[in-house]
Every structure is written in structure tokens, then in C-alpha cells.
């Protein structure tokens, strides 16, 4: 279970082995720590007791604080979850070898395949219901597939030599994918194309907030696997930039955020903003709930069904194993 705190004036306390959410205008809510995986705080006007933070650390429940745009700015977790250093040493060493190129290549391949998978999912019922969108999807899918062949042709000694080529492939894939998405979205959204921070249209604001939730969750997953979230391969190093989070999340954006967000918008839901142009608390709560619900859904890996949250954990551990030279790092592609 993933708990989201969005109401101003909420107090998070501990009672036995249960977290309590206390609010003067709402009923008391309790959650057993053994049933909890994460706590996401989306408001700046709440209080967390030291006892509650300590209990979460003991049970391996990470607490993420995100701002009004969905960007994570703080995290509470136990320092003993990452008590080994062998994985991080291997991660740093891989940057200067072809192994780092493989991690960058993997990130883009996972992105291309899952974007294609999502377009197939949304295109299932559009052949007669929305022929224009169906045709746009039909044009995008072979483009995404063709870009994979270009990925395989990229070679070099380290990621710095080939990063621009890889990012060029990623960019062309984005043009094809978001062009098909634009054809699917309701006309009233006036989708201008994919925009990052600072976007003011409904689609991008909702996506950006959803990605922020996913970034916070990903940072926890990577840290628990013994990896350094700020030492990536495809994305360049910069102070405060979680490069490995951005690498790893490429394969999960379409699966965990795009799918629930596009479904919400397609059903007529629209985000609300305040007088400052920021998403309202109720809107932020709705987006977080949609992403968390998606992370709780199950997909098949290796013939078995796992929750998406657990698949992310599995992939992070496989990445760590791959960097240590102890196993393979297969691409996860969501079913459609």
C-alpha cells in the first residue's frame, strides 16, 4: 500500500505498529506499517512525528516529500538499507567502460518498447471509433521499431563517446510517440506536444506531476538495490540531478504514468489550478492516487504475476547484478 498525505494540517503519528493520520476536520485514519510500502507527502503544511519517521525506517517504509510540481525534494529512509559498497564501486567503474553504454542503450530500448506497447493498448478499440488516431498509431509503431535497429549499431568505448547518438535516437522516438498521443487526446486539451517543467497546459502539467511521483519512488528503489541515484549513464552528471533515476525511469514512464494519466484525461477528467497557476491539492491527490493505483496493478514477468512496484524492484536488482558482472539486465516490456 502507498499512502499519500495531501491535506493541510495533517499530523502523522505512531500508535503501536500503525501510522495514524490525524486531521481536525476529518476522521482518524490508521494504516498498519506491515501493509505499507511508501508515504508520499504533497503538502508543506503537515507534521511528522519523530516516532513515526523512526518506525517507517525500521519497517523499510520510505517517506517522500514532493513539491507542488511533483518534484521530490526530500526523503526519509534508513541508512542501513544500503550498507554495502560493492555495487556502487561497480557502478562508478562501469561509466568508463562499454558496460555504461549498455545501460544507456537499455534505457532507450525499454522506453521505445513500452511506448510502443502503450500505443498498441490505446489503439485496440480505435480502428472504427477513431480512425485518425488509429492511423497515427499505425505510423508511429514502425518508427519506434526502426529506431531499435539504430540503437544496436551504436558502438564505443564509454558512454561519453556515444551519448549524443543515443539521445538523438531517444528524441526521434519521442517525436513519433507524442505525435500519436496528440492524435488520441481530446481536442479541448489543445496538447502542444511534450513539455517539461514550466508547462501550463493540462496534459503536461498532469504528466509532470505524475513523473515526479515516479521519480521519488524510483530513487528509493535504486537506493535499496545498493545503487547511487545520482550517478547515471545516459543522463549527464550535474549537482542535484538524479541521473540514474532519469535513466532507470525511462522504461517505466509510459507504463506507470502515461497510461493512467492519458486514461484520466480521455475520460473527461481535467486538472484544476489555483490563483498562482499551480495544481490544487485535490488535483495533486488525484494524480498521485492514479499513479499509485497503477503501481499496485499486476503484470507478467517470467510466467508469474507481480505488482508493477515489485517489477521496478526486480529491475533495479538486475541492474545492480549486471553492473557487478554477475547477471543479465533484460528489458521489461509491459503487457497490453
Q: SSE layout and pairings?
A:
Elements: E1 2-5, E2 10-15, E3 18-22, E4 29-32, E5 38-41, E6 46-48, H1 50-58, E7 62-66, E8 72-76, H2 86-94, H3 98-123, H4 126-129, H5 131-153, H6 159-184, H7 202-224, H8 243-249, H9 253-266, H10 281-295, E9 298-301, E10 304-307, H11 308-323
Parallel strand pairs: 1-5, 2-6, 5-7
Antiparallel strand pairs: 2-3, 3-4, 7-8, 9-10
Structure, described:
The protein has 336 residues and is α/β, with parallel strands linked by helices. The chain has helices spanning 50-58, 86-94, 98-123, 126-129, 131-153, 159-184, 202-224, 243-249, 253-266, 281-295, 308-323; strands at residues 2-5, 10-15, 18-22, 29-32, 38-41, 46-48, 62-66, 72-76, 298-301, 304-307. The chain has 2 domains: 2-66, Ribosomal Protein L15, Chain: K, domain 2; 86-323, Four Helix Bundle (Hemerythrin (Met), subunit A) (Up-down Bundle). 51% of the residues lie in helices and 13% in strands. Strand 9 (298-301) and strand 10 form a beta hairpin. It is globular, with a radius of gyration of 20 Å.
CATH architecture of the largest domain: Up-down Bundle
Largest sheet data: 4 strands, mixed
- Percent strand equals 5-15%
For the termini, the CA-CA separation is: 24 Å
CATH topology of the largest domain: Four Helix Bundle (Hemerythrin (Met), subunit A)
| DSSP, total strands | 10
Order of helices and strands: EEEEEEHEEHHHHHHHHHEEH
Amino acid at each position: 500500500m502507498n499512502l499519500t498525505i495531501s491535506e493541510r494540517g495533517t499530523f502523522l503519528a505512531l500508535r503501536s505498529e500503525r501510522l495514524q493520520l490525524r486531521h481536525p476536520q476529518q476522521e482518524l485514519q490508521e494504516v498498519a506499517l506491515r501493509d505499507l510500502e511508501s508515504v508520499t507527502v504533497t503538502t508543506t503544511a503537515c507534521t511528522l512525528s519523530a516516532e513515526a519517521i523512526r518506525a517507517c525506517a525500521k519497517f523499510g517504509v520510505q517517506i517522500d516529500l514532493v513539491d507542488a510540481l511533483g518534484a521530490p525534494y526530500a526523503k526519509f529512509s534508513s541508512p542501513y538499507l544500503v550498507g554495502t559498497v560493492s555495487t556502487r564501486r561497480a557502478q562508478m567503474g562501469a561509466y568508463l567502460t562499454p558496460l555504461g553504454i549498455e545501460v544507456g542503450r537499455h534505457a532507450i530500448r525499454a522506453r521505445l518498447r513500452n511506448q510502443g506497447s502503450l500505443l498498441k493498448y490505446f489503439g485496440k478499440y480505435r480502428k472504427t471509433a477513431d480512425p485518425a488516431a488509429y492511423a497515427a498509431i499505425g505510423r508511429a509503431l514502425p518508427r519506434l521499431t526502426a529506431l531499435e535497429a539504430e540503437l544496436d549499431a551504436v558502438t564505443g568505448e564509454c558512454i561519453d563517446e556515444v551519448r549524443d547518438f543515443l539521445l538523438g535516437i531517444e528524441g526521434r522516438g519521442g517525436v513519433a510517440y507524442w505525435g500519436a498521443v496528440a492524435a488520441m487526446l481530446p481536442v479541448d486539451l489543445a496538447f502542444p506536444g511534450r513539455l517539461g517543467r514550466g508547462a501550463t497546459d493540462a496534459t503536461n502539467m498532469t504528466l509532470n506531476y505524475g513523473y515526479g511521483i515516479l521519480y521519488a519512488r524510483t530513487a528509493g528503489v535504486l537506493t535499496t538495490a545498493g545503487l547511487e541515484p545520482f550517478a547515471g549513464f545516459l543522463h549527464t552528471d550535474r549537482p542535484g540531478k538524479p541521473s540514474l533515476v532519469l535513466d532507470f525511469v525511462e522504461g517505466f514512464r509510459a507504463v506507470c504514468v502515461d497510461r493512467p494519466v492519458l486514461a484520466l484525461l480521455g475520460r473527461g477528467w481535467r486538472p484544476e489550478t489555483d490563483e498562482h497557476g499551480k495544481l490544487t491539492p485535490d488535483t495533486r491527490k488525484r494524480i498521485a492516487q492514479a499513479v499509485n493505483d497503477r503501481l499496485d496493478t499486476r503484470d507478467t514477468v517470467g510466467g508469474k504475476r507481480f505488482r508493477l512496484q515489485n517489477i521496478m524492484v526486480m529491475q533495479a536488482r538486475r541492474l545492480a547484478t549486471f553492473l557487478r558482472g554477475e547477471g543479465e539486465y533484460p528489458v521489461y516490456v509491459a503487457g497490453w
